[in-house]
Task: inverse folding
């Protein structure tokens, strides 16, 4: 990390300002800057001017300090020292500084991660405590239905109570899945087998109706490193979303083929790009509005009256844990989710 340097004389004229200083302050070097008052050269950076002006006013200059440049959204760390002649008189001053913006951002991300971890632990505790009373409500409502078999109104009300309790319990279960760290049981996995299993299981998660599902797998699909159970959950959730979007009629096509990562070119033409398996789930439903495609993976975002908004957030979390990628492309003629998974993963056990 290079240092920015500004040196100026006692009369305020600029003696030195290096290229890094211009870059950090977002300024362009002009002919004749040296010899001008630093207040003129830095007129767009009043916070810096105030620091430099204090060089001959403070009895003790800061050895280490930070300055936030709000207009640039940048943080610098600096030291300010006087330059003295042989007689000990201050004849100028020099400021050394570094751009600490990236360091500040990394520290903020670490603090945010710690806060989210604490929030996740709290949410997991609350969700766990909610599961027991919800189960009790469902059981007791079922028992009450047996006590009033001849009352149509009571049967209807109790059926609604049981249905709402099941919905609340499903939301609690999804919340627990979302806040807990993902523990991958990585093994050699056949993607085709996982997809066929997901097609069968998706029927139990959302009503399929008359929706047709066409599965097209390439014959040369490689075996990948992955967690079969977690990947099955990914495809079950995506299929269930498609079933709900189609509302009982339409077509879904699931295809899987080999691909290559586009993270970078091969090194000197010797090492080939990393091999991947690309799975597309395409439906011919109404599509996702363009202004919502960037939000659908956000936790708790949903357009469904009874949705938790966690299904696609969990999908992305699982795909990320596999060092994979998920993309969505939607138009008025349907929606395509594309899941790209590396054949060989560097994934750890917990993410």
Result:
């Amino acid at each position: 990390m290079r240092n920015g340097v500004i040196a100026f004389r006692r009369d305020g004229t600029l003696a030195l300002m290096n290229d890094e200083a211009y870059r950090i302050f977002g300024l362009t070097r002009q002919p004749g800057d040296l010899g001008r008052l630093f207040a003129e050269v830095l007129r767009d950076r009043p916070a810096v001017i105030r620091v430099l002006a204090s060089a001959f006013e403070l009895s003790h200059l800061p050895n280490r300090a930070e300055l936030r440049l709000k207009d640039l959204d940048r943080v610098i760390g600096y030291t300010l020292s006087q330059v003295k002649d042989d007689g000990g008189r201050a004849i100028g001053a020099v400021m050394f500084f570094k751009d600490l913006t990236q360091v500040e951002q990394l520290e903020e991300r670490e603090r945010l991660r710690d806060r989210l971890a604490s929030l996740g632990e709290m949410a997991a505790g609350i969700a766990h405590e909610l599961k027991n009373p919800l189960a009790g409500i469902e059981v007791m409502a079922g028992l009450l239905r047996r006590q009033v078999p001849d009352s149509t109104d009571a049967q209807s009300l109790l059926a609604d109570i049981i249905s709402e309790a099941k919905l609340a319990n499903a939301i609690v279960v999804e919340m627990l899945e979302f806040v807990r760290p993902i523990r991958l049981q990585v093994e050699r996995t056949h993607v085709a087998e996982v997809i066929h299993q997901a097609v069968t299981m998706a029927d139990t998660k959302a009503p399929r109706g008359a929706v047709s599902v066409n599965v097209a797998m390439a014959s040369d699909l490689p075996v990948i490193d992955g967690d079969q159970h977690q990947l099955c959950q990914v495809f079950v959730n995506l299929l269930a979303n498609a079933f709900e979007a189609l509302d009982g009629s339409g077509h879904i096509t699931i295809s899987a083929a080999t691909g290559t990562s586009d993270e970078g070119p091969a090194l000197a033409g010797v090492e080939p790009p990393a091999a991947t398996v690309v799975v597309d789930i395409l439906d011919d439903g109404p599509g996702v509005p363009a202004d919502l495609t960037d939000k659908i993976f956000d936790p708790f975002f949903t357009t469904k009256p009874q949705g938790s908004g966690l299904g696609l957030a969990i999908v992305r979390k699982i795909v990320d844990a596999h060092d994979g990628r998920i993309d969505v492309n939607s138009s008025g003629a349907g929606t395509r989710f594309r899941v790209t998974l590396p054949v060989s993963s560097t994934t750890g056990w917990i993410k």
Summary: Residues 39 and 50 are 9 Å apart (CA to CA). Residues 263-271, 347-351 have pLDDT under 50 and may be disordered. The first helix runs from residue 19 to 24. The first strand starts at residue 4 and ends at 9.
